[in-house]
Sequence to fold (1397 residues):
Amino acid sequence: HVGSSALQQLKQIGGPLSMQGQVKNVTGPQHKRLSMLQQPQERQTATKDSQSNSTQPPHSVVSAMAAALINFMLMFCMCASYGMIMFRESRHKAHRALGVKMCLSSAFLGGGLMSVLSGIPVAIGGTDLNPAVFYGTFVDVIAEDLAMQLGLTDGADARRLKSSLPTSRDLCTGQHLLNHRFECEKYHEQLRATTIFAVATSSAMLGVIYFALGRLRLTGYMSAIPLSITEGFLACIGYKVFNYALYFCQFEPLHFMSAAALGLLLYFCKALHIGRPAIVLPLVLMIPLGLFWGGVFALGYDAAYMRESKWLFSEMENEPFYLVWADCLGKHQQINLNAWSKTVPDLMVMLIVCTLDCALKLRATESKLPLQPDPDAEIMRFGVFNCLLSLCGGAATYMQLKFNVISFGVMRNADDRRAGMFYALLCGVCYFTTIELFNYLPKVFLSALLFFAGAGFVIDNLWGSRKYLHLSEGLEIVGIVAVFVISGQLLFAVLAGSLLSGIAFIAKYARVSAIAGRPLRGNEVITRERPVGEVAHQSLIHIAAAWMLILRLKGYVFFSSSQAILQCIEGHFKDEDMSCVPQYKRLKYIIFCAKLLDGMDASGALCMLRIRRAAARRGVRVLWTDLTESLAEELSFREILDMDLDLYEDLDAAVTFVEHQILDYRAAQQDKWMQLHPAFEADAKLMRQRICFEPFREIFLSEGARIGCPWRYCSRLHIKRGETILCRTGDANQPLYLIHSGAVALWECHGAGKNHSLAKRLSSVRRQGWFLNTQAVFGQPASADAVAVEDGEVLCWSKEQWWQLANERPLMMMELMKAVMRQEIIFKQEHDLEHLHDAENERYSRRRNAFEVSEQHNKDAMETMLPSPAQTCEPTSGGQKVPAPPIILSEVFGHKSMQMLPQLQARITDMFIASALGALGFFLPGEEGILPELPKLLKECLRIAFFTFAERRAVGDDLPQIVLPASRVIKALLHVGIFHVHAEKVCKDDLLLEGFLDLGRKCHLARLAPSQLEKIELLCSRHDDGTGLFAVAETTDMLKMLFGIEFDVAINDAVAQCWGPETYPDTHITSEQFAGIVSWYVKRRERDWNLLQGVLEILKCTNNLLSDSTFLEVDDLRSHFSPPEGTLPEEMIWGADWISGGQGQGILDVCSFLTVFLTNLQLESGRLPPACAFSESDVLDAAEWPAMSCDDILERSISYHSPGHTAVVVSIDKKTSETLDPFQTPRWARITLDLLEIPESSKAALCITRCMAGVVVLNVICICLEPLISGKRANQTSEARSIWLTADIFFISVFSLDLLLRWLATVSLDPKLMTAVSFFTHPANICDLIAICEIFFDHLMHLPLLRALMLERIARIFRIAKLVMLSKDSKLPAVAPLAAFILVIMGMYLIYIEQDA
Fold:
């Protein structure tokens, strides 16, 4: 697993320890409101809901009517509120019914058309808050201009008309109406006609824009507008809605706090999906109304009394629906185009905002509902609907996403259109009849609905967007809202937002592409670490090519350049879908390499978030590498990545992680292959048994090269993580090393003239089967530092041992040299290609290039290494032909992948040799054969193995006895190179020397039948020179004549030399010895024959012969195997077809089929054998034998020391390396910061944090209770003022002490002036400073200027803001938005009462 890889431990990159924390599966593309309420738990709930929708319940009329009733109640109340917003001034109350009717017509006609024609069956249509707010602005502008044209007011009064507060002059009411009766009548007629015209015109223009966007398929481009601007505009809408809600309550604390509580409750019920919507929402709406009227009637009051007491709005008289045409078209001369023209700037802003709102709601539908509508087709339909509505004077309409979600939640299905139809009918009833219901709705209730509507803007856009925006982009939103608050005009906010966005764009503009080069696939990247051997690694390449896509990002990713990244990913997904690529061949991992990335803005981040969500829907995981700490925190803050799961230090670490996942996948696939036949699992056990014992599996490619006990020519060395340095750069006379277990990192020096340690960089991490310090073979000094990064064992050959090996076992030495050269060629080519590219393309090269450099040189070098493939021949013996099986492997072995893997070639060749021997009848069961004698060399190797693993036991008073325990018999056999015997099949009794020699003879040699011995005698007689002997050099030709197979001459000579020294002269052997050689070869191929039988059975070969024209097809696999659930035979064949790169089209050639069972995908952790014992005197006593158990647990950290530099401590529990600071920081300062800023550092810190949180909450409660209990500050008694001042002093004292201690501790850790100043540049510290400064400057110094600047109210606002910052770390999803909600409402109230004072 990647968590234990050496690179992870060495570089501490914080790779994932499991796959349980997958990328959050949040579906759907970019949408307008990236709600901060959507915490992981909620997203998981949403995912479960969407999954459960695959089995939707049957349609129900009752549930449809319930959904329609709930949506109607909400929409009617919202339409009433919209009418109040449009004509909010008291002098316009006669027109409020008109505004309600215009909104109801939108709900009736728009909702009805959508319920029938929309591609979203549960679509609920109607006007939205955005158009209503702009309509209110239109009315104010038109009223102002009409009043001036008719001479009803002067400029000063006109300016007061457009303010958000009630005018100080009653226009066209009371005495003013008596004095200007004619002008006031004309004023109202023109206001009414012009307003209808303005609303109808805006609906028509929106309809044209919607239709054009859908027709030209431009909806997707709306997301290119910077997120900070759209969030700022929508936050302004929320602010204005809150302002209307406060205005309806006339800023009375009891009224607006009750309304805010009810609106917030309704919002959280919807946002957090509390309970069943069919029950919860009606209760939340009806219970407050029932309690209100129940209390009224219980106290003996009536509606008239409540209206006089300002609990109800002024009575609204119903108006017939046809007045919309009568008062506009019927009185077209009353339409004042001059007054309407003044609304054009606001109209332009409205068109932009409503278009964005509609497009983004369509985009968000996928994430909220189990639907995938076509946004372009839907918005085109909305355009047609709005054009039709403009003919009826209706307000602009489009889909209301929150109402859609309510319908879906009530009906539990997304394809029932009846809820929308019933809803439209109910709205139509009110539209055509009466709206008298409004007269019985309390102000608090309508204000609560406005708070409910505005909460989505404030919480999602003003507060929730902080998760996706950088600090500077958050300040852009604050600036847009500030401009709107000061000016009261959205136009100025638009201009300010555009200006701020332009400045930010220029500052962050990147003139180069965001993608460096072309995207890379998994087989085009070279990694430093190989988790398995080269053979197994090559078998993973074609899976990596299909599963992995690597994009190297560079420059600054902003709202324009991010589209190229999105198109690249979506294009790949689209190609997979269009090509119908099977799931197992599809992309599984996207890796973004950010080595050259400078950063990204909010739109780029949103694009990345969209990519992540699209990838999550397809089961694709997105990984990030080479991120700077600040950029990683920024992306984590925006929820683009999970720093614990998706972040890796560099591309090498990420690719290594993916390779581990592919390795797990291949291992699981291999386990399924093993189920095809018992022979396959048996051979795999033998393979793992050898790998656990020695590292020579891919070193000695033939058994002949291993004859002679290689253990006597090498030494063993235990390596400790971080303590063992095998060699340093420039060291001479160091041994050659071969890793058996553990891992060793190579650090190379690069760059001339630099300090030795500073110039080191990690070159590679090597594991079992890899050589180290290969320069020692050529007499050269070491070229790298070799540092152990995992505990383990290595073999080493000193110069003396190497020369002894060369003299006594030249073939063994030659095989070692070949293995060293093979590894050096591969490593050198990859190393040279790594430095061949410039900085932009560093370490990104195509893997196939690593095998194509210097092709002729490789060919010449490998010709001396590769065993010759068996060829067809027809030798004769005694005038009779010996059958030769068809072994033609040149086409398969000519593949580049096979050319670079002689280890695999050798084993496949052995399989074909076993096929040939089987054809000759050597493995047929029959009569008991004769077992030849062992040569002296093999007997000597058996004795060494026996003494090495035996123990001396005391048996009573007799002399100690040397016994080989049964548990170590298999190890002794492995010691002499017998790898074809299963541990469980070895005798279960302890053995003496004679017994072990007899066992070794049976394991070394095969019994030969009399008929086979006769053939051998006949063959030997034809080569006998009359002395009964024949030359050793002739054994190759004799074996070729006997088996029909051409053997390697050097290997045959090495095998024959085992028997040669037993005769005189030693260059000749007898026929009995030749029979022993034949027996030795046959025994070695028994394992391959057993495996071959399973292969032949699966391939349905009846002649026991293999050829490269034999194939395995999908149907063959199905006939022999019932794959587990979720496994396809095609997938198994594709995963195994690595030689052709998975292009076999469901057919697996015989060589690829064999590689499935000949490839080891695991590195077993075994112990090397002890030092060789050559005689009885070297045998250990039983008590001296160490327990053959696993090594102790690895230490948690290592230290790598470089001369003249501090030690770099690398801990696997941390993500980064830390340099030990020789200076000790003040202990009290560190303790103070831990207590005040890091709650998880100790229980005391957690307690202090909770106490501070309690103080903050209590302070906010006091701020909210003060106006409720004592009223405005100006009207408070001196006693009440003293009580509240005392409370303020207490809270500010606590906050001041906290701020002072943190500042002193920070400065103590780094006593510099810059540290003292920079402490107050952090936004949280700035907030704390402003929150406490009021008590010192206003109350203690009594500076009137500060009171004029509203410092007291601003300080209180910032004290409420402390609650917002405190809530960010809360695990409850409702705490943070609740704090933001309180901050905005109380801030508006505090500013209002200060202005009023």
